[in-house]
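BUG: 3D viewer hangs when loading the predicted structure for this chain

Environment: internal workstation, default settings.
Expected: structure renders.
Actual: progress bar stalls at 90%.

Input used:
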Amino acid sequence: MTKYVIVLASMLCFSCAKEEAQQTYKITSPDAKNEIVFELQNGVPVYKVAHEEKAVLKPSKLGFVFKENDSLCNNFELLEAKETTFNETWEQVWGEKSIIQNHYNQLSVTLQEKAEPKRKIEIQFRAFDDGVAFRYIYQNQGQNDLVIMDELTSFNVAEDGDTWWIPAYKTNRYEHLYTKSRLSTIDTVHTPLTIKSDNGLFLSFHEANLKNYASYTVAHNSGTNFDLDLMPWSDGDKVKTDGSFKTPWRTIQIAEKPGDLIESYLVLNLNDPNTFEDTSWIETYKYLGVWWGMHISKYTFWEGPKHGASTKISKEYIDACKELGVHHLLIEGWNKGWTPAWYENRMHEFSFTESTDDFDLKEVTDYAKANDVKIIGYHETGSNIINYRKQIDAGMKLYQDMGINDVKIGQVGDMLNMTEWHGSQFGVQYYREVLEKAAKYKLTVNFHEPIKDTGERRTYPNMMAREGARGQEYNAWSEGNPPNHTTTLPFTRMLSGPMDFTPGVIDVLETKGFNNRRVHTTAAKQLALYVTLYSPIQMLADLPENYIGKPEFQFLADVPTNWEDTKVLNAEIGEYITTVRKDLKSDDWYLGSMTNEVARDLEIDLSFLGEGTFEAQIYADAEDTDLNNNPSKVAISKKEVTASDKMTLNLPSGGGTAIRFAKK
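Structure tokens produced before the viewer hung:
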């Protein structure tokens, strides 16, 4: 019934306006390629987008429906249209690129209803060289309990095309394999939504600076016309306000080749600048974890004879960290509350201060400190947010007192508190609250089962990474992730921000010894993931004994987690990708290249290296290796190269190549 009323309101926005002249305003990007046109058609606001001569969006509607079927979408007059330009460069605290340019032209239009109550609304449009964005700003006009029931924003995509998507409103949140289909055939899907348009353009629909609002999904209307669909509260409301609201930015990244989507920083640019005066406590890192052993059933999360988070096993992992030169260790399952059924949707309760009987937090953290290792804390809420909020201060203060600076926070469960969507306004407020709370205790955060990333890391640089997709763990206890999953992620999930994918399982057949599963890549591709899938915190996910004494571990020891620059050399979505990144602290470059199920040879130009001679330290699949034959075998070689050289990468099925270019 609610949806039916909303559709009627949307139709009224176009059918009941009085006849009057059309008003048109246009803004273009600094390079004049991207164009946004705003029109007031008989009192109804619409917008359209183009890239040079190619249409991106045909006229698309704007507006809102509030409670009691009160709509704000027609019978407008224009009060003001103002154009501005902005150009700055800013430095990331950490990231895939150190210095970012934020350059755009803006059109701000202020509209007012002609009839009572004559409410005003501002719409801001920004045109960047890498895409466009817009948002609504509504000031309190006498209605202190204004509730948004629908945002009438639509995306009337000009051309059909191929799209890569995951479904919305399903179990397991964002943790689905991506489906490739025609745009015109999809239903309701999450963002980022990536499209290869029939006109040759590559598009990504998403949002930026999501706070105190509901996240949106893309709902199919008809043909290639889509509606912005806000994720609701359990009572059906979409957004509860105090009479004022400012929406997140609705973003459309526009590229002429797929790699340009990855090199776009539009979403970050639309977030508020960093307000932390002191960021010295925030650092990027690589880490081991008492983690993979739990997922492959070598250990358990809960107490018992195979409990992974015991003092004894934790100290063994600390010893392994010291031997491998790894300075961070994640310990999961150290606290009271874990049971074999902990992951079920039953408002499970954990303690965030009380250790299990076989674990001594102080003894372990003291031992870690003596061995130059930092412990990463873990809070699993089980989506019981009521329980977590009661203990969050005590739990975070305990970590601070123990010298712990980093925390992984899980929200396993289909609904928060078994009632609210993770992406609802309730969820958005909860995740922001936890992030701000962590900053108070100087803790960096790695969210699992999160709300999607919309660039918060610019404002809160303690927001390091999050899950929000099918990660490595699915290779341990399900049919696994097919080889094309990791060649799709850079162009979909990864466009929103860093992911804690947990790469680095180099014994890809290891799980067969425990539960008859395996990782569906070669070992060399696992090395390449450290370059192709960005995160400032990269897990070395395999069992420590699979690294010790292995020459290919040298690449994992060398590869940085903070970069000066990033470039994509070649790519086809879901097929293959070659990414290079420059180390922030040296003149070295690192390359990751990987393919899907199809073997292929890729020629790369080394002109990105710049001046000088480099030693290419190459970690590739051995000659007799592919997805199904000797997949753990890595061939290591070295050669001198310069920027004038070319290289051919031989990628077998499910394979990859990782290279360090060390400046000589």
